[in-house]
Amino acid sequence: MNMNLYGHDGQWLMVDCGVSFNEPLVPDDLHTAEVVSADPKFISDQKERLAGIVITHAHEDHVGALPFLWRRFQCPVYTTAFTAEVLRRKLVQVGLADEVPVIVMEENQTQKIGVFSVSWLALTHSVPEPFAMTIDTPAGQIFHTGDWKIDKQPIIGKGFSADRFKALSKTPIRAMVCDSTNALREGHSASESECYEGLLRAIEVEKGRVVVGCFSSNVARLVALGRVAKQTGRYLALIGRSLINMVGAAKATGYWPDDIPLIESAHLGYLPKEEVLAVVTGSQGEPRATLNRLASDTCFDLSLDADDLVIFSAMMIPGNETAIMRLVEQFKGRKIRTLQQQDTALTIHVSGHPCRDELSQLYSWVQPEIAVPVHGEPEHLVANGQVAKLSQVPRQLVGRNGDLYQFAPQVCIRRQMVKTARIALAR
User: Fold this and answer.
1) 4-188+351-424 has which CATH code?
2) What molecular functions are annotated in GO for this chain (predicted)?
3) SS3 of residue 183 by DSSP
4) Number of alpha helices (DSSP H) and beta strands (DSSP E) in the chain
């Protein structure tokens, strides 16, 4: 649940404002809140200094808290067209449809936001229009990667282009603030196109119903499953409000292909089982999501029988292992088969984040003076810092939530300068 603040000359710029789900508000608490965000008290107490909010992409852990917290900030929001469409739909749900100034930015565009000059750089991830950015001030220029991977053959959008990032080495980058999610994994992340091939091979041999659980924001995965449905003689339906909203945003911004039809989920029960392909929410074992209702046979639109197949086309987020395995056991108890990535050599899920080879490649292109690993558990941040060091980045600053990273005039981390906490949000 990302919430980053950059400060210069008495002003602040927020980058991303996200949520997490079903997590405790304090460490090791057995009680969890359904929707959790970082406590914004530090910046909301001085909101007159907040020049603006920039959202890098439309994943919940980057944009999900903004509709609930915007009244505490009351400043303009800058993002690209697809993310803006997703955000506007969320703002309608909380009664802020016409109150939040959302400014749509384009690739390579530069926007002055207070004392900050922000430029948008396109890259590849697992959602349409993921963007990195440079943040320029008189004290130096920062490169904030957001979430990314090097995907030469994405299902949606253009392949990763190195040229723009190589050019950054010619305009000195003071610090590169970089995604660390897969910093413990060797090699290179697989392409979304490889995942399409894997899902096709897994589904084309099936004779019964197939259900796929995945993240609703992964529009590329949904498009891939639409193609699989066409090639295997199945009808594709979505079950889950967040899936339907995301595809609505994709259609509104031109990212959903015209030749991939969807049927109403209420029609699934009338189809022969070999013609059913349903995409559902709940791949992390969320108690109120569709996969849980399917496991307990309480889903209104669809019932599964013995020997039907449930595919988990999503990573197992750390901390969710117990809930997911409980879900798997429920299906097995009804003789419904399940398929997770660890069960097969087929590529049925790919990560949207860079492995070590990709991290090293981007560090060598950008050549920052300082590496700042973010977006991961402590061991991921440390591993990212090690990759940066091996990639000849002169300095690595590895910190924690609440630390203040000082880039100029002296370079240092001032530990625990800001009190951090989590708060529950009501949906």
Assistant:
1) 3.60.15.10
2) exonuclease activity; metal ion binding; RNA binding
3) coil
4) 12, 22
